[in-house]
Amino acid sequence: MVHASSWRVLAASLFLVAGAGAAAAQNAPAPAKGPGHAAIASANYLATNAGFEVLGKGGNAFDAAVAVSSTLAVVEQQSSGIGGGFMALLHRASDNRDIFIDARETAPKAVDMKVYVGKDGQPNRDVSTNGPLSAGIPGEPAGLVWMAAHYGKLPLSVSLAPAIRIATEGFQPDARFLGTIDDRKDVLARYPASAAVYLPGGKVPTTGWTLRQPDLAKTLQRLAAKGHDGFYKGETAKLLVDASRSAGGNWTAADLEAYQAKERQPLSIDYKGYRIVTAPPPSSGGVAIAEVLNIMSGFDLSKLDLAHSTHLTIEAMRRAFRDHNEYLGDPDFVKMPLDMLLSAYYADGLRATISPDKATPSDLLPTSMAPEPGMHTTHFSVIDADGNMVASTLTVNLEFGSAFIAKGTGVVLNDEMDDFALVPGQPNAFGLRGALANAPEPGKRMLSSMSPSFVFGADRTAVIGSPGGSTIITQVLEGILAFIDGKSASEITAQKRYHHQYLPDRVDVEAGVFDDATAKALTDMGHVLRNRSPWGFMNVVTWDHRTNKLDAASDPRRPSGLGKVQ
Question: Which of 399, 404, 334 is nearest to 370 (CA)?
Answer without folding.
Answer: 334
